[in-house]
Amino acid sequence: MSGTPADLGRLLVVLGPTASGKSALGIELARRLGGEVLLCDSTQVFRHFDIGTAKTPVREQQGVPHHLTDLVEPDQLFTAGEYRRRALGVLADLETRRKLPILTAGTGLYLRALLEGLAEAPERSEDLRRRLDRKADRRGAEYLHRLLTRLDAEAAARIARRDRQKVIRAIEIRVLAKKSVGEVHRAGRDALQGYEITKIGLAPARSALYLRIKERTGSMIARGWVGEVRDLLAAGVLPNAKPFEFIGYSELRDHLAGKIGLDEAVRRIEQSTRQFAKRQMTWFRREKDVHWLAGFGDDANIQNQALEIAENRRH
Asked: What is the pTM (predicted TM-score) of this model?
């Protein structure tokens, strides 16, 4: 049905770990409540990286418009601050068109940036970054993560060892601000105003989620993920571009370079995805006022529970 005046000023947030069915639930809620979907995913903002980032193909979107995906080229920098700026623009447009915004969130930092605002973090220091990059080149990528652990254990616990860009940014903040990343982020934020926010969390059983991750990885390979990576490299996307740090893309890049076999690449992808899902849940469990549902977003019973939560929040 179409949006109603009661929906204005409301924001639904669907959050949860990778492979939990956030996209399916977001589409179903949008279809039944007259809404549109806003993606909150740091991997899906990059163009051309489609299969491994689990972008929902247009043919599966059931006519529901999707926003905040395919925003930049692989060699472009994209930050949480830029995400917030673009998301605010989409929210303003949906309010004008009287559509209910439904945010499907897999990236906790982007969700925090939108809902709570961003602190005044120090600007980039190219000199410091070059020095850190040189150290990582000489001593290995995990050296920087060990350095961050000594400087700011809280930040290090939230950032994957392989995410060189985020590790460098965290060290940069700690060194230049002379405060922990958490202290900087908790200070001086400009929270989102004018919305009644309802958060729905997906929390399937761990064993079921791990099985879903295994099945989804196999499905992505069957759909041509290896070919997608081959085509990206052939098109001139640099092997060290930011999206090639994403889970799966780095493993398949190494597979195509002859460094590991496909079976080993798949094993590593599944393992890294499980570890990522655990980090996501650790982050999202700290979110306040979440209505947690013990299942997957593509399950009809879970969808009905989520719809009831959304409708009961109406005024």
From this structure: 0.80
